[in-house]
Amino acid sequence: MTAGTTPPAPSSGGQPARPTQARGTGELVRNAFRRRAEHALERLARSATLDELAQALEAPTDYGAVARALGGSAVPDAVLDLDPFADALARGAGERERLASRAGGLPSAAQAARTLGGISRQAVDKRRRAKQLLAVRVAGDWRYPAAQFGADGTVPGALSSVLAMASELGMGAWATLDFLLTPDAALGGLAPMDALRRGGAEADAVGRVLEAAKADAYG
Fold first, then answer.
1. Is-contact 193 180, C-beta < 8 A?
2. 186: which DSSP letter?
3. How many other β-carbons are positioned within 10 Å of the β-carbon of residue 66?
4. Which of 21, 34, 67, 173 could link 136 by a cystine bridge, Cβ 3.0 to 4.6 Å?
């Protein structure tokens, strides 16, 4: 074949072009999901009360509105009969949305980079992997709970050791966030994140509280 010559098209009996096939399959999957999601949302909108829908609409994001609606009592009994785990999954989504609100929001990596003084997104990712920053997964992206950043953009120095301990204890990111935001009597009524920010003995006590909380969870 000479330079600049267009390669021949595959024969009718040859293999179809893979990129085209992949795009076609992907679009079929997306359309199938859209149809099922639209059907589910239509049923949810019909079965929910106006109060439940109004509460769902108070969420700051589209995802949050859907999560709140699914986490309520509007999921039809017929659905639960066919899919017993639907209610648990929906309530889990609603709880994550509430945690995000308690955390003051979930900034993106780019937003976290600006909060941390204009560092690069790669530097943010490096700190996440080193367990110097807490991040949770939302729709495939890493988001950084705002509660860990002080007014000046600083992160508590002892946060890294707590995140490492939580990981060693098998706690997921969302469970760790819940722990950090929940006031504890052993910390004088402070949430662990607030105790970490105060430093000193109060910060040292967070690790002991975390170990005790994990022990209680497993009995």
1. yes
2. G
3. 20
4. 173
Distance CA 133, CA 218 (A): 26
| pLDDT for the residue numbered 68 | 66
Q: How many residues does the structure list for the chain? A: 219
Contact (Cβ atoms closer than 8 angstroms) between residue 163 and residue 155? no
Distance CA 203, CA 192 (A): 8
Among 195, 130, 120, which Cα is nearest to 156's? Answer: 195
pLDDT (tens digit, 9 = 90+) per residue, 157-215?
A: 999 999 999 998 888 899 899 999 999 999 999 999 999 999 999 999 998 888 887 66
149-188 CB burial, b ≥16 within 10 A, e <16? beeeeebbebbbbbbebbeebebebbbbbbbbbeebeebe
Residue 144 gets the label, from left (phi > 0), alpha (psi -120 to 50) or beta, of beta
Residue type, 143: R
Cα–Cα distance measured from residue 186 to residue 202, given in angstroms and rounded to the nearest whole number? 10
pTM above 0.85, yes or no: no
